[in-house]
Amino acid sequence: MESNQIDRPGATLPMAPLVGDALADSLSEDLARAGQQEVSQVPTRVESGGDLEEERVKDEIDIQIDLLNDSDWVVRREAVITLGEMGDERCVAPLAKALRDGDWQVREVAVEAMRQVGSPAVETLLKLLRDWEVRKYAILSLGKIRDERVLAPLMLQLRNDEFKDDAIMALVELGEPAIPLLVTALRDKDEQVRKSAVLALGRIKNDQAIAPLIEMLEDADWFIRLTAAAALESIGDERGRHAITPLLKDPDMVVRMRVERILAKWKKQPVSESATT
User: Fold this and answer.
1) In a domain, 7, yes or no
2) CB neighbours of residue 81 within 10 Å
3) Which of 4, 158, 202, 246 is deepest in the core (most CB within 10 A)?
């Protein structure tokens, strides 16, 4: 064994290989390389907290949409409520579907859910006005959304005998923003529109309507005079009390009798100097 001989003076003594250490180093390097390779094969995906939250909400929306197909109306109702609470515009289409649900309790919460979504739902609801089967719930939904786009379409529904009551409810729900158009409608040629406008203004109970309603006490139609007097009673302003007094001599007996009752009731309770807004 020539390389291992040590009998020559001054010769460099070759070191015997440290087998254990060399093997450990080799394994360590192999593991390191393998680890780097494995990491490099994993797709890099850096997401902000907002992105993760959006993905979670999207998944939850999909879950609730699937539940809208459940045979149990209670499950569908809860799904609609949850979609409304999310208030995401992606909920509009499934909620529009819920407005057609076979159970009235589901349809009812769908109207409220549309309110929670708000303006993003307006365009879809306006399209639903063309559909007779769902028009009632579309009207009621629009009345819960404070968006100027809903006013003219709702006023148009006052001309529809079948849906005018729903439109009145919706306009009353909107409240003060609807008053200018309702006041204008008091001069409409359509008697039905004038009646509906008087009813709505009386239920909104805003002092902006007092003067226009007083003018309606002279309308040619007895029912409009009667309704205007009732609307002024509802608002409860002192000006209305004085204005309806001449109707005690109205040519129509029904108007006279109603005004007598209104004034008798009014005497039993104080009237505020300004209307309740």
Assistant:
1) no
2) 16
3) 158
Structural domains counted in the chain: 2
**Do both 135 and 205 map to the same domain?**
no
Distances (CA, A) of 51 to 45, 46, 57, 85: 11, 10, 10, 20
Name the residue range of residue 193's domain.
Answer: 175-277
Tell me which DSSP letter residue 2 carries. G
Predicted TM-score (pTM) above 0.85: no
Phi and psi of 162, rounded to 5°? -75, -30
Based on its alpha-carbon atoms, the radius of gyration of the chain, rounded to whole angstroms, reads: 38
Give the amino acid at 243.
Answer: A
Residue 267 has a pLDDT of 80
Q: Which amino acid is at 18?
A: L
Check whether residue 252 and residue 190 sit in a common domain.
Answer: yes
Scored b (16 or more CB within 10 A) or e, 36-48 reads eeeeeeeeeeeee
Reported as a single tens digit per residue, the pLDDT across 57-106 is 668 899 999 999 999 999 999 999 999 999 999 999 999 999 999 999 99
CA atoms of 199 and 168, how far apart (whole Å):
8
